[in-house]
Amino acid sequence: MKLPIAVVLVLLLAGCQYRPVVDQKMSKNPERFDADLAECRQIAEGGGGGGHVAGGAAGGAVVGGALAVATGRPDRIGQAAGGGAVIGGARGAGASGREKREIVRNCLKGRGHAVLN
């Protein structure tokens, strides 16, 4: 059970550790890049993301429990719901990381940096 929790934590941290590829020659203020990146990461962290994880976990638990009933194993509802919650939470964490990367990317572009990825 420790591995899925580690995977979720890595996915959550992936969004704030994102360092985009920037064409410094095309950027308006290349000397401001590091400061802007730090500020944009801070903005992205303030955007939340926990809702993705919680929603994914809840949805996964429901699907897992329903699957146990549908396959004729109502005695396994708790295990199936728990497994579904872990998988759903990990998917939600991935969505949260993608959202944070997009916020950082858009923030840097808005500040005049030529973000390539």
Globular, elongated, flat, extended or rod-shaped: what is the shape?
rod-shaped
Sheet with the most strands, sense and barrel status: none
Compressed to H and E, one letter per element, the order equals HHHH
Give the averaged pLDDT, no decimals.
76
What value does the Rg take, in angstroms?
A: 19 Å
End-to-end gap = 34 Å
- Fraction of helical residues: over 70%
The amount of beta strand, in percent, is under 5%
Number of β-strand runs: 0
Unreliable parts: none
- Number of helical regions: 4
Total discrete domains: 1
Oligomer: single chain
The computed structural class is: mainly alpha
Task: Itemize the secondary structure elements and their pairings.
Blueprint: H1 2-16, H2 33-46, H3 50-70, H4 77-110
Report on the architecture of this protein:
With 117 residues, this protein is mostly helical. It has one domain. The protein has four helices and no strands. It starts with a helix and ends in a 7-residue tail after the last helix. The mean pLDDT is 76.
